[in-house]
Write a structure and sequence with these properties.
Layout lengths: L11 H15 L9 H11 L4 H4 E3 L3 H10 L3 E4 L2 H6 L2 H5 L5 E2 L5 H10 L3 H10 L5 E5 L3 H12 L7 E4 L7 H9 L5 E4 L6 H20 L1
Parallel strand pairs: 2-3, 2-4, 4-5, 5-6
Antiparallel strand pairs: 1-6
Helix pairs in contact: 1-2, 2-11, 4-11, 7-8, 8-9, 9-10
Length: 215
């Protein structure tokens, strides 16, 4: 097994990031320092280097998101999978909570009666929480579309959007809505994304805050 590289369990993540950094360097890809921890963690989660070229950040997106988290912003996801993947302990350190309304009975009932997706109704419910929110959306383009419609109607404006839905129907168009908005965002252009990517971006932001606090 000459090609097997043996690592202690605690060193595997560190070694993975070393490999990612080396391969990015070989591809002549230089990531902006503030965005680097986020993009690299997405690559670590997916083993897909295309994210280094497709993730888009609004001006000062990383610093804006970290400021929100420091001030106790909560995170709303569109899947329980993303919710389970986000480090709740690190989020709670700053007073933030984690929400996913997709399985709520009232959301299911409204979605059925109004012939909407649960994701759309979940975003409406989140907009009524009355607190600072970061939306981490990795599955449902209708969640992004609903947030944009609420903005257009003057009913609600999200504090920050992580928009990385995966799929084929309305995915690209939904992301484009926020690329042209005034809302701070981290968006992955194209069809790729997913709940794991949404969670990875949130964790990268939280771990960056932890690293800064330890300096």
């Amino acid at each position: 097994m000459k090609d097997i590289e043996y690592c202690l369990p605690g060193d595997i993540e560190k070694r993975s990031f070393e490999i990612i950094g080396k391969e990015l360097e070989e591809m002549d890809i230089v990531l902006p320092p503030d965005q680097k921890p986020v993009t690299m963690r997405v690559i670590h989660t997916t083993a897909d280097f295309q994210y280094a070229q497709t993730i888009c950040y609004s001006p000062d997106a990383v610093s804006v998101a970290k400021k929100l988290l420091r001030e106790g912003a909560s995170i709303v996801t569109d899947t329980n999978m993303a919710k389970s993947g986000i480090n709740k302990g690190e989020l709670a350190r700053y007073g933030g909570e984690l929400y996913c309304f997709m399985a709520d009975e009232d959301v299911a009932a409204q979605a059925k009666s109004r012939q909407l997706t649960r994701a759309a109704v979940s975003m409406e419910k989140a907009s009524r929480l009355g607190k600072k929110l970061i939306f981490a959306l990795g599955n449902a383009p209708t969640a992004l579309i609903t947030l944009y419609e609420l903005m257009e109607q003057g009913l609600y404006t999200p504090d920050f959007v992580i928009g990385v839905p995966v799929g084929f129907v309305n995915v690209v168009a939904a992301k484009e809505l926020f690329l042209n908005s005034n809302v701070p965002y981290i968006i992955n252009k194209g069809r790729k994304g997913g709940s794991g990517v949404a969670a990875a971006i949130c964790n990268a932001l939280l771990y960056s805050l932890k690293s800064e606090a330890m300096r």
